[in-house]
Design a protein that fits this description.
Distance between the termini: 80 Å
Shape: elongated
Structural class: alpha+beta
Strand content: 15-25%
Radius of gyration: 28 Å
Number of strands: 31
Strand order of the largest sheet: 14-15-18-19-20-21-22-23
C-alpha cells in the first residue's frame, strides 16, 4: 500500500502559481501573469465569466488539487500550475478557482493528491493528470499516448497495489474551455411524438467514410458535417430521427490487437468506452478538434432540425474507458474512485455489470447529479432530442449491485422538468443477467424491444409455432407494455441494429464470421435466428439471391407495418453487408463503412424501403396511439382488428401454422387522426410453400386493392399511393412462399 506525500504541503498556504513554460502563442494574455481569485463551487466544469474562466471540480477524498494550464495541446509541461488552497478554494467537496485573463480555447488538466490505498478503494496518484468530468471538449488533434496513464507500475510484482511515479502529461489529452454561444437561428428540439417517428441508427463515421459517399454530395466524410450533408438522402428515405452511436469523446486506439489475417491494427470503432461525457468527439469534426467539434456538432443538429430530423444520442452511463483495476487513470478513478464506481467488498476490485471492467455507481447522489447535468447539457446547449441508454439496466442497480424497484436516477431522468419532452430509450438489460424488457422502471421510458427482433426473425426463418408471437409483436407487444400503462410506441421495434448482423447478412449467413476481430470468433452472439438460404455468404445463384431479396423485403415490411416505433439500421435499405461479422466494434474499415454503390446494385430494395416508410406514414392505422382491443366499438362497426387463418376463418391460435392474416379497421376514431384510413388486410406466409389465402369481404361498398406483395418484382412489389391494383378475385389469392401481401379497401 502506498500513500502519496503530496498532501503534506501546509493546508493554510494560499493558492500560488508556478510558471513552468512560456505561454507565448496563446490568444489570451500570457498565462504566467493571469490573476486569481477563489471563485465559487457552481457550476461545475470550466465556465466563461466576464474576466476569465471559473473552474470547479468535485473530490471528497482529495487532500490537494492543482489546476494545470497549457499553452498547446501536446505540451508535456504546463504553462501554469495553480495550487488550490483548501481554505479559500474549497467549498464542501468542490474545489474551485477563478482565473482572469484566460478564455475559450484554454487547455487544462488537473492533478489530484490523496491516498493511494486500493484495498480501501482510493487510487489517487498526482503523477497521473486528470480530465475534468465536466469538460465540454477534449483535444483530439493528436494521437494520445496513454500507456503511462496507469496509476500502478505494470512491471511490479504487486501489480495494481504498486504506485507509479511515471508522469503521463505528454500523452494525455487536454480539456478545452468552450464558449457555449452559438447562433441557433431560432432552433429548438423538435419534440415529435414517438409514434410518428422513423429512427435511423447509424455511426457518424461509417455513414459517410466510404469514398462512394461522394456520389451523394458528401464533401466531409466521416464527420458531423458529413452527416448534415446526408440530409437530402435521409429526407427522401423518410427518416424522422437519426440515432447516433456514441459521439462522446473516447480513445479509438485503446485496443492492443490486430486483425489476424491482414495484421492491420484494430480500433475501438463503435465508441462504447466513454472518456468524457460532455465532450463531442474531436475526430468527428471536419473543422478541427481543438474546440471546433462543439460548434460543428451544433451546426449538424441545427441543419437536421431544419430538415425535420431529430437527433437521438446513444449514451453510455454504465461504465467508462478506465476499465478494471489494471486500466488507466484518466478521470473518475483519480478524482474519487470509491464514489464514482461500484466496488467489490474488498474495494480493490470493481463490480462488472457492463462486461467492460467497471460499472458506474449511477445511484450515488453525486453520480446521479453528473448524469442529470450531462443530459441537461446535451438538451439545453446542444439541442438534442433524445437518448438511448446503453445497457440501461445498470442505471437501476444500487452501489451493491442490487436491482432497485424504483431506481432514483431512472425516475429522476423520467421526471426531470428540463428533460420532460426528451425521448428516453432504454436498452433494458445489462451484461450481468438483468433483463427488464417490458418492465423497465420509471414510467415513460421506451425500450429497445429485442423480443420483436427475435420473434420476427424466427417467423420468417420458418420456425414452428411462431405465428402467434408474430401477431403479438406486430400489434405493439401488449404483453410487454399494456400492463403498466405504456403505449405501443414505447416499443422500439427493430429487426437489426449495430449489435448483430445487418439485414443482408441475416439472410446470407447461418452463423457469425468474426475472425477479423482477433478473438477466435468467440465474440458476438450465437443466437442470430438467421439463415443463409442455401449458400453461406455471397452467392451468384439467382434463385438464392431472389429469395434473399424477398426476405429482406419481408423484414422491412414487417417492421414498418407493426405498431410501435420502427428503428432501421443504417444501410439496411440497400443491403449493406459486414461480411458476416455480427460484432464489428473494432472494424474502422470497409467492413463497417456504408458502400453507397449498393444503392445501384440493390435499387429495388432501396425503393421498397422508401415506399414502405411512405406507406406507414400515409396510413394512421399503423401508428395509432393505443393498443388494439379486438372488440366492436358499437353495433354498426367491425372490431379494430380481426384475426383469420389463411382460409378466412377465425384464427385458431392452437394451430401450428406458419401463416397469419388480419384485418385492420382504419376508422379515425381508433387512429386519433383527422381522417378515416383505409381498412387493411395483411397476409403473412412464413411457409416455404405457396399457399392460397381467402381474404374476408371488404367493407360494404368497397373492394380490395393490392398494395404490397413482396414476391413480385419491382415496381410491383409495392405500389405508390393511388396506383394500387384492384383484385380481380376478391375472395382468394395465392401468397407465394416466404412472402407478405397487403390489401387496402377503397
Amino acid at each position: 500500500m502506498h500513500t502519496n506525500r503530496g498532501d503534506s504541503l501546509p493546508a493554510c498556504r494560499p493558492a500560488v502559481v508556478r510558471p513552468v513554460a512560456d505561454g507565448a502563442g496563446l490568444s489570451t494574455p500570457t498565462l504566467a501573469h493571469a490573476s486569481l481569485s477563489p471563485g465559487g463551487p457552481l457550476p461545475l466544469g470550466a465556465t466563461l465569466v466576464p474576466d476569465g474562466v471559473q473552474f470547479a471540480v468535485f473530490s471528497r477524498h482529495a487532500s490537494a488539487v492543482h489546476l494545470l494550464l497549457y499553452a498547446g495541446p501536446e505540451d508535456a509541461e504546463p504553462a501554469r500550475e495553480i495550487r488550490l488552497d483548501p481554505r479559500e478554494n474549497r467549498t464542501g467537496d468542490i474545489w474551485h478557482v477563478r482565473v482572469a485573463g484566460v478564455g475559450a480555447g484554454t487547455h487544462y488538466l488537473y492533478r489530484a493528491f490523496g491516498p493511494y490505498e486500493p484495498e480501501a478503494g482510493h487510487r489517487f496518484n498526482p503523477n497521473k493528470l486528470l480530465l475534468d468530468p465536466y469538460a465540454k471538449a477534449v483535444t483530439g488533434s493528436f494521437t494520445w499516448k496513454l500507456a503511462d496513464a496507469r496509476g500502478y507500475d505494470p512491471d511490479s510484482p504487486s501489480g495494481d497495489l504498486s504506485f507509479s511515479a511515471v508522469p503521463d502529461a505528454a500523452g494525455m489529452p487536454k480539456c478545452i474551455v468552450v464558449d457555449d454561444a452559438f447562433d441557433w437561428q431560432g432552433d429548438r428540439p423538435l419534440n415529435r411524438p414517438l409514434r410518428f417517428s422513423v429512427v435511423y441508427e447509424t455511426h457518424v463515421r461509417g455513414l459517410t467514410r466510404h469514398p462512394s459517399s461522394e456520389r451523394l454530395g458528401v464533401r466531409h466524410p466521416g464527420t458531423f458535417r458529413g452527416v448534415a450533408e446526408m440530409i437530402p438522402y435521409l429526407r427522401d428515405l423518410g427518416i424522422t430521427a437519426v440515432e447516433l452511436m456514441p459521439v462522446q469523446e473516447f480513445d479509438e486506439l485503446e485496443l492492443q490487437r490486430r486483425d489476424p489475417l491482414t495484421r492491420e491494427p484494430l480500433e475501438n470503432y463503435w465508441g462504447y468506452s466513454t472518456m468524457s461525457f460532455f465532450a463531442p468527439k474531436g475526430r468527428y469534426s471536419a473543422a478541427g478538434s481543438l474546440g471546433q467539434q462543439v460548434t460543428e456538432f451544433k451546426e449538424m443538429v441545427r441543419e437536421l432540425h431544419r430538415a425535420g430530423i431529430e437527433v437521438i444520442l446513444d449514451i453510455v452511463f454504465n461504465h467508462t474507458s478506465e476499465g478494471d483495476e489494471t486500466g488507466p487513470t484518466l478521470c473518475f478513478r483519480g478524482w474519487d474512485n470509491s464514489i464514482y464506481y461500484m466496488l467489490e467488498a474488498d474495494k480493490r476490485h470493481y463490480k462488472n455489470y457492463s462486461g467492460c471492467g467497471n460499472t458506474l455507481n449511477c445511484n450515488h447522489p453525486l453520480v446521479r447529479s453528473l448524469i442529470i447535468d450531462c443530459l441537461r447539457y446535451w438538451v439545453v446547449e446542444m439541442h438534442v432530442d433524445g437518448f438511448r441508454f446503453d445497457l440501461g439496466s445498470v442505471l437501476g442497480r444500487d452501489s451493491a449491485g442490487r436491482l432497485l424497484e424504483n431506481p432514483p436516477v431512472v425516475e429522476r431522468i423520467a421526471e426531470d422538468p428540463v428533460l420532460r419532452e426528451t425521448k428516453i430509450i432504454a436498452e433494458a438489460w445489462d451484461a450481468a443477467g438483468a433483463y427488464q424488457v417490458g418492465s423497465f422502471p420509471g414510467g415513460r421510458w421506451a425500450e429497445w424491444n429485442d423480443r420483436f427482433r427475435d420473434d420476427v426473425r424466427a417467423f420468417w426463418r420458418g420456425d414452428e409455432d411462431t405465428a402467434s408471437r408474430l401477431a403479438t409483436r406486430i400489434t405493439g407487444s401488449s404483453d410487454l407494455y399494456l400492463r403498466d400503462g405504456r403505449k405501443p410506441f414505447h416499443s422500439i421495434n427493430f429487426v437489426t441494429s449495430h449489435d448483430g448482423f445487418t439485414l443482408n447478412d441475416l439472410v446470407s449467413y447461418g452463423r457469425k464470421h468474426n475472425e477479423a476481430n482477433g478473438e477466435g470468433n468467440r465474440d458476438g452472439s450465437d443466437a442470430n435466428f438467421s439463415a443463409n438460404h442455401g449458400v453461406e455468404g455471397p452467392s451468384a445463384d439467382p434463385e438464392v439471391e431472389h429469395l434473399r431479396n424477398r426476405q429482406v423485403k419481408n423484414f422491412l415490411a414487417t417492421l414498418f407495418l407493426s405498431l410501435g416505433t420502427p428503428m432501421l439500421l443504417g444501410g439496411d435499405e440497400m443491403r449493406r453487408t459486414q461480411r458476416g461479422n455480427n460484432n464489428p466494434y473494432c472494424q474502422n474499415n470497409e467492413i463497417s463503412w456504408y458502400d453507397w454503390s449498393l444503392q445501384d446494385l440493390h435499387a429495388d430494395v432501396h425503393r421498397f424501403c422508401r415506399e414502405i416508410i411512405a406507406f406507414r406514414r400515409d396510413h394512421p392505422a399503423l401508428h395509432r396511439p393505443e393498443f388494439y382491443s379486438g372488440e366492436d366499438r358499437d353495433r354498426n362497426s367491425m372490431p379494430d382488428i380481426t384475426w383469420f387463418d389463411r382460409r378466412g376463418r377465425p384464427r385458431d391460435w392452437s394451430a401450428a401454422e406458419r401463416t397469419l392474416a388480419c384485418r385492420l379497421d382504419g376508422s379515425k376514431a381508433e387512429t386519433d387522426a383527422n381522417r378515416d384510413d383505409n381498412d387493411l388486410y395483411l397476409m403473412f406466409n412464413g411457409d416455404s410453400r405457396s399457399l392460397r389465402f381467402a381474404p374476408c369481404p371488404a367493407p360494404p361498398g368497397k373492394r380490395w386493392y393490392r398494395a404490397i406483395d413482396t414476391a413480385r418484382p419491382a415496381p410491383e412489389d409495392i405500389l405508390a399511393a393511388g396506383q394500387e391494383q384492384e383484385m380481380a378475385q376478391q375472395d382468394r389469392l395465392v401468397v407465394q412462399g416466404r412472402s407478405l401481401v397487403v390489401l387496402l379497401s377503397r
